[in-house]
Write a sequence for this structure.
């Protein structure tokens, strides 16, 4: 009798779970609203358009290029279910798509093995997720299979994550930083002393609430501190750190710092996207010098390519029309680069455009 009751409870729970998943599909369908305008790319000697894909996305790190692929968090249809999608870098062809069962998500980072996605607390991904607990999910970067998921207690959102050695370092609310095992997602450590973002033989680099700090690995002595926004997350190269970019409905700056001294090497203002880098150049969207920012739209927008060492402009490209819309629909613009292919998400046109960049032409 007891076994029969237990079997009934198990069946009921399984049925409730699948009913929950079914009902969420309607409840969590995202309606993005109409595109405002379509942009044509004004190609030049430095850029050749490879493909264009219609996508719908809304976060500062919604698009990442890695492993000869493009990953994005959003939808391919409007309305649609929020998904993690992999596109072929050269053709834009959809290779796989994984439903996230949430109406909000962010693409954190990717390496050769994993793609990391976060879902904020309150965006419940299963009946067993606490309301105010954010979640990080790891997917196989090639197959798209989910490898693990981990709830991050005491935080409503994960804004930043780095993969350093064999760990994931994630920054949550209230300046909490978490260390997770890269293969399992198990939480190994929690601290308020900053997020480890990179290190070399002598120095650890930490993101703090008000900026970026370099610390001597052996002594713990603070070597330098750069005050400024750490979102979008800085990118760490061999000799240079690229920090800055735009956040929602605000103009941003792009700053190049010396890893050794923290000195500012060069800086650009009036940036309206995140920042992407390859081995030698920095890519971002910037409004024209004489354009006026009113919080709703901006004109004379260009994609700039800047020499990483010198900070000089190598090339630029414009769009037609050259104005981009922000406004109440929270259009946010993304740039991603892998080798010589740069992907640009023009949010008000709901367009992901891939361009091959040739610096020497």
């Amino acid at each position: 009798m007891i076994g029969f009751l237990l079997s009934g409870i198990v069946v009921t729970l399984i049925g409730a779970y699948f009913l929950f998943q079914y009902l969420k599909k309607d409840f969590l369908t995202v309606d993005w609203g109409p595109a405002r305008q379509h942009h044509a790319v004004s190609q030049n000697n430095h850029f050749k358009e490879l493909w264009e894909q219609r996508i719908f996305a809304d976060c500062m790190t919604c698009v990442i290029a890695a492993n000869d692929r493009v990953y994005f968090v959003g939808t391919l249809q409007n309305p649609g279910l929020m998904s993690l999608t992999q596109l072929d870098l050269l053709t834009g062809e959809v290779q796989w798509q994984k439903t996230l069962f949430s109406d909000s998500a962010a693409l954190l980072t990717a390496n050769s093995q994993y793609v990391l996605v976060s879902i904020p607390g309150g965006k419940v991904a299963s009946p067993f997720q606490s309301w105010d607990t954010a979640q990080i999910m790891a997917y196989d970067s090639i197959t798209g299979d989910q490898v693990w998921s981990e709830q991050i207690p005491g935080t409503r959102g994960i804004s930043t994550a780095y993969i350093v050695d064999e760990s994931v370092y994630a920054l949550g609310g209230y300046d909490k930083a978490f260390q997770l095992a890269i293969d399992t997602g198990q939480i190994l450590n929690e601290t308020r002393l900053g997020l480890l973002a990179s290190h070399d033989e002598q120095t650890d680099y930490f993101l703090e609430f008000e900026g970026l700090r370099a610390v001597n690995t052996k002594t713990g002595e603070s070597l330098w501190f750069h005050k400024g926004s750490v979102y979008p997350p800085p990118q760490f190269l061999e000799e240079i750190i690229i920090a800055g970019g735009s956040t929602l409905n605000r103009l941003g700056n792009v700053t190049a710092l010396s890893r050794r001294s923290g000195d500012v090497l060069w800086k650009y203002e009036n940036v309206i996207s995140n920042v992407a880098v390859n081995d030698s150049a920095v890519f971002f969207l910037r409004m024209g010098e004489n354009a006026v920012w009113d919080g709703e739209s901006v004109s004379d927008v260009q994609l700039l390519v800047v020499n990483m060492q010198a900070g000089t402009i190598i090339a630029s490209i414009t769009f037609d029309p050259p104005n981009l819309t922000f406004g109440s629909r929270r259009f946010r613009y993304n740039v991603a680069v892998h080798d010589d292919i740069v992907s640009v998400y023009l949010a008000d046109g709901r367009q992901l455009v891939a361009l091959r960049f040739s610096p020497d032409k």
User: Anything to note?
Assistant: Confidence is low (pLDDT under 50) at residues 18-25. The chain is about 5% helix and 45% strand.
